[in-house]
## 1
Amino acid sequence: MARVSRIYDLLARVYDTQDHIEIAQGFHAALAPIARARPRGTWVLDLACGTGVLAEKLGRARIPVIGVDSSREMLAIARRRCRAVSDRVRFQRANLATFRVREPCSVASACGDVMNHMLSRAPLVRILRQVRRNLLPGGVLVFEAHNRFAYQHYWSGHDYWMEGPGGDLAMCCEWDERRRLATARMIGYARNGRGWERVETTLVERYHSDGELRSALREAGFAKIRREPWSPWDDQHLEPGIDRNLWTARVPENST
């Protein structure tokens, strides 16, 4: 996770491109009904909250939320973004494998390929277990994950240019079918006064099959696991396939 944290520290100023904002907005639409139905007095966990786009939308809907992220730079932006809703949005800098919150949480959410950042089963299960420990009995985890179609059709040999208020971001993507690893060489040009500052890093993601995710969730103590095809893009139905899956899983009511 330290590797991922360093990557996002570098990218924080150029991360808020329209594409990334639209992913968070689309995920919020799927999450909101679950968050509104949570037990009174409980909180929503925003895992790997990044620059706080999802947390702000939840806060403006008067849903109390705790954003957890390991990137200091991402959290600095998130806190500025959520000043107007700071009475019901809190942030904590922590590793997802070890974090603890004091507030009673009945919903946990993870948007932005969080589970795909786990490159093997062991760290995936470790993080899922820690999420379960921070949820009340009966609590629900909601997350989205890239499927194989996304990596084959949108990463393999594709380049992207994304613009945002803090700067611009180029992504040069590749997909290794045999190893099930996707890489994105990311080059950002962040505004720095009247000039620009270049940042560059490489992001690596892994495709986890449906069976692997189900097995990891069960090992971590979750039950009532559901998966459905999902995309944040309104026009995804025009493509030959759906690029993501939306997962929900619950902590058993009798969990301790």
## 2
Amino acid sequence: MRRPHMLFAWAAAALAALILVGCSALAPQANSPAPQPNSPAPQVAPEVSAAPTDTQPPPTPEPQATAAPPAETAPVLPPANRVLNILLLGSDQREGQTGPWRTDVIMWVTIHRDEKAVGILSIPRDLWVSIPKVGENRVNVADYFGEALKYPGGGPALVADTLKNNLGLDTDRYIRLNFEAFERVIDAMGGITVDVDCPIEDKFIDDSAPGGFRLLKVPAGRQVMDGKTALMFARSRHGRGDIDRTRRQQRVLMGIRNRALDVGMIPRIPRIWAALKDSVDTNLSLQEVLSLALLAKDIAPEQIHSRVIDYTMVRDWTTPEGAMVLLPDRAKIKDAIAHLMDGAPLMEASAFPGTCPD
């Protein structure tokens, strides 16, 4: 991950994003291996058809991820542009890691200034897409390949171009952080309150825990979570897999947003800044940050709308190599995007539509 300069502007950018819409919970999957890079073809990948092809990029030596740091300032959106689209990326990349990592949280956030409204679209990590310069693969490897292949604009730009080509989503800015930063931010905030629709019991690989596993047991109802618990809650595939997990991530996001707007959060700003300054990568300018911070206080919870690309918009498919992925129905997804701001507010959306899973 490219390191932002250790300036207040970049820490403030991340903090403003937290205040406005929260930050995405990072959801590395403990029990599956990191993606191994397939060799990218030198040409731009063709438009994805409804059915997958069996052609996969041939293997090559693993590229090393190197990228220039973001510029000190980013261009400010002109006043006439009243809609700002931000890509929130959460990866399982660890400190100093240059090998393959996964961006297991991808949220596209559209901010409508005049309407004082926000729309959030969660994109499942297993969505099978055409990635420029790479070919067909899971969407969660686009960030890594963007860095490894020195794609113009790096990983976030390749993710943005992938979403544009496959789903028609336009992106103006991005914010990217890893799960270690996520834990630190939650703890610096003093924890968050999350509405849990269905009880969850799961376990995660954790070398620091007795027996090498850490148990997650969360009852239904309003629950206060520290950083580690919130991360496990967002990581869990309890229920119906990847898509239910994206719904839980949105619940965590709402908890962060609500906590960030608490008047008691002001004394904690130095701790939050310390938690973010080395771990956040963004191209938001300081001017944009200030604008978003002023807007945040005027956005009511019922004006934060959300959608998840769910099983009505995808179908399961197993690649010739045995990977289980989700094939998108592009027409249905684009229709959901078109009606994103008409959907139920995030605070009313259930993380488990229907009955609770076993």
## 3
Amino acid sequence: IKVHQLADQHSLQLGTVGSKAKFNFGTTIKTSYGGIEDNVYFDIVNVDRYDAIVGTYFMRKHGIQLDFENDKILICGKPAPILSVGEDASEFIRHAAMRRESQNQYYRHKESSQNMLSGVPEVLPPLREINHKIILIDEQRRYNYYMPRCPDYLKTQLSDKLGHYTRAKWWIQETTPQAAPMLCIPK
């Protein structure tokens, strides 16, 4: 099936759950059903429980009637093949299995990435053996700098982050003769 991207997003004209249902892709495929053979355009949408939805334009063009009272589909007055009760049930089971597999895959993925989704833990990772030395503080060095300023719109984020670091004991408030400046740079 050759799929093409639409120039603009289009709204889906079905009752859907959610604020907006849009589709971006479409395709034209050769379709045959009950003596009808035609090239039919389809919008490609991820719709639960359906393989394809045929619209009223297609039904009028080919003289398709739905007889719900007698459980029949008529094409130009002649009955067309439909799924039997057993086939309908097996199709429903197939779709349910596909949905379950999709949900299981989602939960497996969510479980495997839980450590990345749970936020920053307030504990340090376990200590490992250190076989090197990094000198961060040079007691003899004096820094000349101007007092840095944090933009007003970032002050709440900075305050929250400082509180988090202090609660986690990553930072400890102390007095010192001179400290390196901190700079807030918006991304």
